[in-house]
Amino acid sequence: PKDKGWWNENLAQYQGFWLPSLAVLGALLINDHFKPRPTDIILSTSPKCGTTWLRALIFAIINRNSYDFEHHPLVTTNPQDLVPFFEGYIRRNGSCSLLDSLPSPRFLSTHLPYSLFPKSMASTCRFVYICRDPKDVFVSKWHFMKKLRPKELAPISFDEAFELFSRGVSHYGPIWDHALGYWKASRESPDQNVLFLKYEDVKKETSVYVRKLAEFLGVPFSAEEEKEGIVERIVRLCSFENLSNLEVNKTAKEPRIKTRPVSNPDYFRKGQVGDWMNHLTLEMSRLLDQISKDRFQGSGLSFDLQE
Ligand code: A3P
């Protein structure tokens, strides 16, 4: 089945998920050609769950000995441009040869569901997954996606978009199944190579999670680094306040891709937990909470739900 999605790009239902054609092609090419390495780091997210932030944090953690903080690439480059988008990179090149030529450790970002990756990757690479309360994801997505809708089409209404989202019809949706795939892998994988994070937790205690990430990625902070305050410097460098106020993320207004009117500032909106309260009716928030409860029942996964 196909659906026009939120901004007139066909989404196809593939193995239970609503995916753009780029993702389906990317997944097929990955399965056929990608040669995983044990040093590979795959950041996986549903769109609007904190991809940009985690790209920045992981980049800063694994490259902390290559740059000083004043001349850090994150000061002059949007995190989207520092980390290859896995399925997009492969699809554009039609092969994995460019990825094959990248030095280790390779750090790639993806929106693909866990079940679409080959078994060889599941047992070899490290996956970091970040999820977020679907209510905030919907609101974030609504603001982002409406920019992408072609001008010649009537704008999609908030209610229409909500109805699609709650049915799972949104990029890489349903968000619940996306999160569950990684959640189960994080608990059941004998290789312990899936780190499952929540945006809300990372927001509350960022430095705790920076340490956790470093450990998981095999590069824990030394006592000396701790003494020098490197963790806190990484937290500050990657904070919403810092990144969103950098020249490159604030003023670069040209579209990132010619056909899509999205520019660097669009990746930084509010960066808060609970902005859904300013947008959703009580009925809407209850519906999304109920779906989360139903879908996650018995899995051990939940969000702190508040009205
Ligand atoms: P909001 O729209 O709620 O503000 P993604 O990067 O996956 O597209 O997610 C975008 C969301 O993450 C947006 O949420 C954006 O503001 C927020 N975000 C971007 N950078 C962030 C940062 N450094 N810290 C916290 N949130 C950030």
From TrEMBL:
Origin organism is Corchorus olitorius
> What name is this protein filed under?
Sulfotransferase domain-containing protein
Task: Report which part of the complete sequence is shown.
Answer: 353 to 659 of 660
- Which residue intervals define the domain Sulfotransferase in the entry? 38-300
UniProt lists the family membership as follows: Belongs to the sulfotransferase 1 family.
Positions in coiled-coil regions: none
Domain of life assignment: Eukaryota
